Amino acid sequence: MLFSLKCFLSYLFFFLFFLKIVTCQDNCSKVQCSSAGNEPEIVTPFGNKDLQGGGCGYPGFSLTCNILDKTVLKLPQSGEFLVRKIDYVNKEIRLYDQNNCLAQRLQQQNLNVNLSPFKAYAYQIYNFFNCPASITSIPNALAVPCLSNPTNTVLVTVPSSSEVDSNITKVLVNGGCQISAPVTIPIPFSAINKVSSYDFSIDDLYLTWIEPKKSEQNKPESNDPKGEENSFDWKKLLTIGFPILGAIAAIATIADILRKRKRRRQKKQEQKEREQKAREEREREEKPRQPPQHPPQYPPQHPPLYHPQQSLPYQQHPAPYYSQHPPHYHGYA
Q1: SS3 string of 193-250?
Q2: Could you tell me the pTM of the whole model?
């Protein structure tokens, strides 16, 4: 158990050190709301909290994804616009209306981008005319199909001090058209010198931006005027931390189980060796003791026999004494 605790604490220290490195790095990788629909890539200065986590992007450059996986930009006091394209080289973003009627959005409210980090290349004033259905188009006037209907035609002109513009206005008014309040609309860079080349009724809204200061990067957007400079993304921490912490705990548990299993095997082996040694000792004590056996000597040794009259041993005499001198018995024939 002590080994398991030490192992777990070691892995926990490694995890916290690794997590510190991860959170200090820039994890704002390139993302898209949908790769199938050719949605624009989201990289710095833009950010998507749902796909990248908090801390990515600059204030005011936050993008989201709707239920149709479309990229959405919300402009203050102007509502949400869909993003068609982002040109990071020229710092240009193209917006369009989800109902494909940008003219209606622009007519209902003057677009104000001053509260956002985006700017217009230039502005142009347009006059909207509500005309009878019999008037479909006239020179130097743009028809707005999404605002027109079978009984009404909406035309747009660019007011100017020229005599041509005055004549167009007279023709429309004399034809039964009613002029609406003028609307100020941002125009793209290509239409600055030629306003007639931009047809906002079918084209997109073009905006640009100035690269924010590095000191403002990764500051989360907040309604607090003081900001939340020291805020921490706990959701991201939990998302990264729990799987790693679980893996560390699993590794520590497996290591402890293997260690205990190895220790049990060692104890069993030692127990077997002790039992074997004790059994051999018992067998040695129970076995009866036998006198030491000496190997036989060949030929067998006998005590030397001596001849009665000679000093040589009997075995070394050439012939036994009694074989050469048989005994004589006196007094018998």
Answers
A1: CCHHHCCCCCCCEEEEECCCCHHHCCCCCCCCCCCCCCCCCHHHHHHHHHHHHHHHHH
A2: 0.57
